[in-house]
Amino acid sequence: MLVVLLLVAACGGAAQPQAETSGGDSGGEPLKVLLFINGVLGDKSFFDSAQRGMDRAEKELGAQTKTIEAGLDETQWESALVDAAANEDYDVLVVGTFQMISYLEQVAPQYPDKKFIIFDAPVNYESGCCDNVYSVLYKQNEGSYLAGVYAAAMTTQQMD
Hints:
By secondary structure, this protein is of the alpha/beta class. It has one domain: 3-Layer(aba) Sandwich (Rossmann fold), CATH 3.40.50.2300. It has helices at about 1-10, 15-20, 45-60, 75-85, 100-105, 140-155; strands at about 30-35, 65-70, 90-95, 115-120, 135. A five-stranded parallel beta sheet has the order 2-1-3-4-5, sandwiched between helices. The longest helix has 16 residues, at about 45-60. The N and C termini lie far apart (about 40 Å). About 30% of the residues are buried.
């Protein structure tokens, strides 16, 4: 679900003709989305959730997707991200977590025709380096609040 929302956000910033030809059944080229994981799948958290979103984007939107697992060795992440940006033919590259901020701030300006999405982390837009980067932040506290409201509404017992 996360990546589906991210794809919608990514398409929103595109030029009008491109937006009309991107995606599932429009007859144009499918949107190409690369998920770059600074780790491995199987974490039962952000990365697996992002992969489920990629799977849905492929199935429901007709997007062409690919996932790169960069592994747990942080010293390899920057070169793997540079390689993905330089050599992979994708419209949108999705990365996540605060650990990728500095790498993304260095790599994104080198590829101004590609869009990057980073989830669960902000980038420094004031530096001017990230015009092609969309930052997605979550308000976990609001979700927790809504879960509490829902639980209270479902309660059938009165507390004295």
